[in-house]
Design goal:
Elements lengths: L1 E6 L2 H8 L9 E4 L6 E4 L1 H5 L8 H10 L3 E4 L2 H15 L5 E6 L2 E5 L8 H16 L3 E6 L2 H13 L1 H4 L2 E3 L3 H10 L10 H9 L5 H5 L3 H7 L2 H10 L17 E11 L2 H21 L2 E12 L10 E12 L2 H15 L6 E13 L13 H17 L40
Parallel strand pairs: 2-4, 7-8
Antiparallel strand pairs: 1-6, 1-7, 2-3, 5-6, 9-12, 10-11, 10-12
This protein binds a DNA duplex through helix 3, helix 9, strand 9 and strand 12.
Length: 421
DNA sequence: TCTGGGGTCCTAGGGCGA
DNA sequence: TCTGTCGCCCTAGGACCC
């Protein structure tokens, strides 16, 4: 059996943990640059705040309904997530951390276990130790566990946030209830296509023939169908596996025209990618750099371009990746456009210890020591304190974060204060 | 004025060598 | 030497997830 444990309205719940006065109060959390809504408490959902709502367009509604608005505080959410995952790992023999707010637990050869009791225990421990409310779905496949979780959440009062699909009857009932667009792995495009041929629920989807699904859709959807039928095709993924691509991309606070500004941004993104590479003990063999103007500004000329630069040798040096990224940038940069977004993606990733040296060109060995020293310093005195000269030494790039909560759990200076009278 | 960021997997189609 | 076919590899783009 698989369990899917999901934190309810995770970001909003994190904000509440240290602000109990916000219980029952509608909360929304905004994206980077305070652009749009990326998380909502149940109260905010009930008031009709849609996911992705553009913050400035909804400002009046926020004020009128006394909705508490927060900038996203990833230091806080990341730390709370680690705490929750750490607790979950004590229950099942195997855990797959699927995202910041959810994890699959594998209960293999645990027939003796009473799942309802186990779920209650998990809920109690996580809620008591972290203050984060969770929902749990148990089922024989990952896709069904997702569905079970959805039911647990949707009918929280009746289910106490726990739902177990352990009989054929319950499986059919769940599938007949679940709209096809809510099946894990069926997005907007596919559900539209399915709707056109009369498939409205997950159950309808399982009534299609395997051949048809494979031919008209793909093997992905065929696997999905089998999963819904209760035949496990998706296994627990090894989350320790190194990433295949690593990206650092950002929108800017304003539009920028000047190459110098973009050079500084791109080289900072490159250094961030390099640091992430070193953290997972990998090197990259190619770097993609991209630039975009603001697609929402129809009144301005648009330009969007990317370029892939192959590195002559595998590297994870911030200096080298920065250098190649700037070479790429120079090739795609065009004057007289207002740029709003840029990014660096490192690709073709290979393990650090499996470097193949080239006959003519190799990574500068001095960089290895320098990078190690840089990472060590950044770890002890605070991330991103030690930078390369081409980075933003002269100015500070600040995201728009007007409503940032304190980093209660990760920064001593911002720790919660208890006032007594 | 203001619209997020970071991933994965699969397929189609072209290049290319046997 | 030329041509057709097959299969492999690579890439771009599309779909999905949070």
């Amino acid at each position: 059996m698989f369990a899917l444990v999901d934190c309810n309205n995770f970001y909003a719940s994190c904000e509440r943990v240290f602000r109990p006065d916000l219980n029952g109060v509608p909360i929304v959390v905004l994206s980077n640059n305070d652009g749009c809504v990326i998380a909502r408490s149940n109260e905010a959902k009930k008031l009709g705040v849609p996911m992705g709502a553009v913050a400035y367009q909804f400002q009046e509604m926020f004020t009128q309904n006394n909705i508490q608005v927060f900038s996203s505080n990833y230091a806080l959410y990341g730390d709370m997530s680690a705490r929750v995952m750490n607790l979950l790992s004590q229950f099942a023999p195997e855990i797959e951390v699927y995202s910041i707010d959810e994890a699959f637990l594998l209960y293999d050869k645990c027939d003796y276990l009473n799942l309802a009791d186990e779920a209650l225990k998990i809920k109690k421990v996580v809620t008591k130790s972290t203050g984060i409310p969770i929902s749990i779905g148990f089922a024989p496949t990952k896709t069904l566990a997702k569905a079970a979780n959805k039911i647990a959440k949707k009918f929280a009062e009746r289910t106490n946030g726990i739902y177990i699909i352990d009989t054929e009857e319950k499986r059919i009932k769940a599938l007949k209830w679940l709209p096809v667009e809510d099946v894990w792995g069926i997005g907007r495009r596919l559900s539209k296509r399915l709707f056109e041929i009369g498939v409205k629920t997950a159950y309808d989807f399982t009534q299609l023939s395997d051949d048809w699904v494979k031919k008209k859709m793909s093997v992905v959807e065929l696997r999905l169908k089998h999963e819904l039928e209760g035949k496990p095709t998706l296994e627990m993924a090894d989350t320790a596996v190194a990433k295949q691509n690593i990206a650092t991309t950002r929108s800017f606070d304003h539009n920028y025209k000047e190459l110098a500004v973009l050079q500084e941004r791109v080289s900072t993104f490159a250094a961030s990618c390099a640091q992430k590479l070193r953290r997972q003990k990998s090197c990259c063999n190619a770097i993609m750099i991209f630039l975009h103007t603001n697609g929402h500004r129809k009144d301005l000329p648009q330009y969007s371009q990317n370029i892939v630069v192959k590195t002559p040798y595998p590297t994870n040096s911030s200096i080298e990746i920065g250098k190649f990224a700037l070479e790429g940038l120079a090739k795609i940069y065009k004057e007289n456009y207002y740029y709003k977004k840029a990014g660096v993606v490192v690709m073709d990733i290979t393990p650090e210890n499996r470097k193949q040296f080239s006959l003519f060109e190799n990574s500068n060995p001095k960089h290895l020591l320098l990078m190690q020293a840089m990472d060590k310093l950044n770890k002890t005195i605070g991330n991103q304190k030690v930078k390369l000269a081409r980075h933003d030494l002269g100015r500070t790039w600040k995201m728009k974060q007007e409503r940032l909560s304190p980093r209660f759990s990760t920064n001593l200076k911002e720790i919660i204060e208890v006032k007594t009278h």
